[in-house]
Amino acid sequence: MKALIVYAHPRKESFSYALLNRVKKVLEKKNYEVEVRDLYAMNFNPILDGPDMIYTNEGDFVRENNEYPADVKIEQQLIMESELLIYLFPIWWNGMPAIMKGYIDRVFQHGFAYSFTSDEPKRRFTGKRALFLTPTGQPQSLTGEDTKITQAIKTLTSEWLFNSIDVEIIDHIFYGRVPYLSREELEDYIEETEEIIDARV
């Protein structure tokens, strides 16, 4: 089995990076072949250029470039080869980092991840599963239930990204108050994530 982790954080000293390494290890223990796409380390280009974007012309959806850019094709192929998709990124200003948003804009394009004229993208993603791991400085509810902010973020990220294709969302986990927690408390977060992956992935 193959797992693809798309990761976005610029600092290797971060909680996000520690979480990434532990998630990778627990997946490997479960015999996953793990591919990590560290967008900052790759210097991934997040800009969707005009010739690559879809637009309407006399009622038809078209783009100037007939093919996706070479770097986008690589990312799309890795998605196709993977049964498990994991997206690990911090929540900044109640949204994903710009480089992750650019990855979505460029990789999850019309004709690949969705289509207004064909069900091919839906068939392409059938059977895949996804997990979202998102550290944040926001507080979490004491009950563990979604706050208005976390539900809004889910709606605009994990739920929206796969809303038209048959990808099972395993979970969207928020790690609240990360900048204010002790190492021990952050370690608890990581261990809880390992348990979730071990039980549900």
TrEMBL record:
GO terms for molecular function: NAD(P)H dehydrogenase (quinone) activity. It comes from the Bacteria. Keywords: Oxidoreductase. Belongs to the NAD(P)H dehydrogenase (quinone) family. Residues 1-194 form the Flavodoxin-like fold domain. It comes from Jeotgalibaca ciconiae. PANTHER family: NAD P H OXIDOREDUCTASE-RELATED, NAD(P)H DEHYDROGENASE [QUINONE] 1 ISOFORM 1. This is Flavodoxin family protein. GO terms for cellular component: cytosol.
